[in-house]
Specification:
The chain is of the alpha+beta class and 94 residues long. It is 39% helix and 26% strand. A five-stranded antiparallel sheet has the order 1-2-3-5-4. Strand 1 and strand 2 form a beta hairpin. Helix 2 runs antiparallel to helix 3. The radius of gyration is 13 Å and the shape is globular.
Length: 94
């Protein structure tokens, strides 16, 4: 049975990470960043969500990221919920 709850899936990957289908959100303390790592290139709508939440693309890390802080953790959850809502809307439209 697949787990759709990000908190349940968090146990399946390294500490400080949340795994959802097609996406891993992780903390990278080595470089003091919180990162969104996609399995494939995200849509323009997802890129807009990330940009509007102050995430920037890093070609060196192959991830969308911003500086790690308590605020950035909260914003990452907000962005993740927006991305999941977008995916849900897209599935309903099919």
């Amino acid at each position: 049975m697949p787990q759709d709850n990000p908190r349940q899936q968090q146990q399946l990957v390294e500490p400080g990470s949340i795994r959802v289908p097609g996406l891993t959100v992780r903390e990278n303390p080595r470089i003091n960043r919180i990162q969104f790592v996609f399995d494939e290139q995200p849509s323009e709508e997802i890129c807009r969500i990330l940009k509007s939440n102050a995430f920037r693309w890093s070609r060196h890390e192959d991830a969308w990221q911003r500086q790690l802080s308590l605020t950035s953790r909260k914003i990452a959850v907000k962005a993740l919920l927006e991305i999941k809502a977008l995916a849900t809307t897209a599935k309903r439209a099919r």
